[in-house]
Batch of 2 targets.
Target 1
Amino acid sequence: NKKKPLVVLTRKLPDPVETRMRELFDARLNLDDHRMTQPELIAALKEADVLVPTIGDILDAAVIEQAGPNLKLIATFGNGVDNIDVAAAAKRGITVTNTPNVLTEDSADMTMALMLSVPRRLVEGAQLLNASGGKWPGWSPTWMLGRRIWGKRLGIIGMGRIGTAVARRAKAFGLSIHYHNRKRVSPQIEEELEATYWDSLDQMLARMDIISVHCPSTPATFHLLSARRIQLLQPTAYVVNTARGQIIDENALIEQLEQGKLAGAGLDVYENGEAVDKRLLKLAEAGKVVLLPHMSSATMEGRIDMGDKVIINIRAFVDGHRPPDRVLPNRI
Ligand code: 8YV
């Protein structure tokens, strides 16, 4: 009868996930779902056998160094690991796992929603109708004209799982698929998507109608869409970002939008996390951008699937097996 591992959750997870966690582990839940302060997070690291953080928890080298001797696994509830110094964890003999695959399709769906919302003025139209108290000015042939998206060129930056899932959807919407990635995808996938690979990101940017960002946030992708590169985009182009805010030089993006040198943007993530630049709110009022509060993977089913993955990883690890979703430091 082995002692159950102490598993500390930094945030509230869906009820079925927490119920299962309590059955299997000595689970410490965050019942009021407050965001842990840094001292709370460090206290959790000192005590836990397994930590289950989310993307909001900053686990950099300095924090990880303070982990207690029992902490052997960080099983993050999320796909991205940009909040965790995986190399520092490895140095301390701490394994890191994530929850890939299960949020791919939900994230791709929401990316499509943003891709449609901005050019087709979906949010603007909905707000206008709501604000009219039910008496909108009336239809006319030139009423609420947006821009067509079918037949346009979509440039995907980062053709991993989510990028590919977006490409499949976009192809069905009649867009042609272009992509830039560290390496080419398989010939089968290129053929399926009729996708064009661009070795040069600069050249791709200059020719696309819509750009959608799907690479991980790493030191190498910080401001990958730099001020210089944003200026390569056509004034009719749209930018969609459901990946991470740090990949785009947000200030440069805002300036380009304000100056009318870019048609619009659909954003789910921001360079300064939850502190959204006020200029973006102004651009949203003007119908130039659609802003979402980091919700592209937020479905009940997805969150439960993510929780199941966390549990599978913890169980494998505790039973002495290789957890299926181990994140290796060299992935970064
Ligand atoms: C979620 C995400 O909000 O998984 C990620 O990397 O960015 C998001 O889809 C996150 O997983 C919740 O912890």
Note: The first helix runs from residue 15 to 24.
Target 2
Amino acid sequence: RQPKELPKIRRLHDSVVNRIAAGEVIQRPVSAVKELVENSIDARSTAINVAVKDGGLKLIQVSDDGHGIRYEDLPILCERHTTSKLSTFEDLQSIKSMGFRGEALASMTYVAHVTVTTITNGQLHGYRVSYKDGAMEHEPKACAAVKGTQIMVENLFYNMVARRKTLQNSADDYSKIVDLLSRFAIHHIGLSFSCRKHGAARADVHTVATSSRLDAIKSVYGVSVAHNLLKVEAQDDDPSSSIFEMNGFISNSSYSAKKTTMVLFINDRLVECTALKRAMEVVYAATLPKASKPFIYMAITLPPEHVDVNVHPTKKEVSLLSQEVIIGKIQSLVESKLRNSNEARTFQEQT
Ligand code: ADP
Ligand code: MG
């Protein structure tokens, strides 16, 4: 006998599946900005400009001067799992581009209104086309365009009432976007970045291409940060553990802040690593008398096969082979650097 309240399993409609998946990839306005900027970087741009209205809910606009998108590709551009970057699963092991899953643009079209304007090298004019739910809303229209691609995302989460309400009340996504662009700008120093509120004359992040990391940090985070940094560097090619390279800047004992700023790139990917951040905070608290929270910029290079980039829907975290060993090494390096600089300072003050 079948009790009549037994739940029946149904197959979800594609549009439901896609919207649910999209909500995971694009969690908030800043996640859309991250995906768009990474696409611009992947397109070998040298200048990336971001404009935002209403914390990104009304409008996110990212313009680049990259290689553009081929006319023939426009019909499938925003379909799920369409990409120019990955073809076999094995490619994931050696992938250099930020993107690889072909999900970002598609996701945006399921939770917002997306318009793409693009021109490829050697073309006389560009094309503009709008997308909804993975598909073009009309044929691409010829239009005037400057080199590269501009993507507009309008009315984000218009069809996700709860998400939109929560975000409207929090209203701090613009600062998250500024923070994101700041991070990109001090890592990709050969590119110029800007980020502003739509229509504003002044940009809140504005960098020009430079060869000096310290200059980039100065222009983004200010002199009070840049003047209080120590350079850290490590090379390790002990094949028994793992081959890694690290370089960065860490705040010295004169720096003071209530919150840790940890800007971490692993194989050129902006990621978070809670374990490493904690380890750094522990070193600072133990080494420096007045326990200020540190500023840390760190770029780590590892063999690609030691980094799993596909562990998080927003690619915010990566998982590392022999993470503990690596963190241990960085921790002792930072500790001795801090100790040395502090002793030198104390010595200077005494003489
Ligand atoms: P992924 O980056 O994982 O490939 P996306 O959905 O982010 O997936 O983008 C799909 C494709 O659209 C990319 O593979 C790329 O070919 C193209 N594309 C997206 N943004 C740009 C851009 N700004 N310039 C040039 N091509 C782009
Ligand atoms: Mg992408």
Note: The two ends are 92 Å apart (CA to CA).
